[in-house]
What we know:
By secondary structure, the protein is of the alpha+beta class. It has helices at 17-31, 59-66, 69-81; strands at residues 4-11, 37-44, 49-56, 87-89.
Amino acid sequence: MTHFALYVELKAKPGKEEEVAAFLASARSLVLAEAGTVAWFAVRFDKTTFAIFDAFNDESGRTAHLNGAVAAALMANATNLLAVAPEIRQPTVLADKLPA
C-alpha cells in the first residue's frame, strides 16, 4: 500500500492555460522513468486550476520525485506559466486501490 503522497495545486496565468495543460501532459514521460512513483495524475479542475497528485510506497520515492525532472521543469517554468507559486502539500495516504 502507498503511504506517502504529493498534492500540488497550480493556477495558470491568464492566457497560459493551454501551455500548463500541455506541460502537464508532457510530464508523463518523465514520471514513467521514476521507479518510486506508484501513481501519478495530472488533472484540470477548471479553465485555470490544475493539480498533480502522486503516491509513493516510501518517503524515499516521494523525495526522489520532489528532486526529479518534473519538479525541476515545473519550477523552471513557474514564473512564466503560473499566477502564484505552486503549493506543494505532502499528505499521508490512508487507503488506496491500485492495479496489481
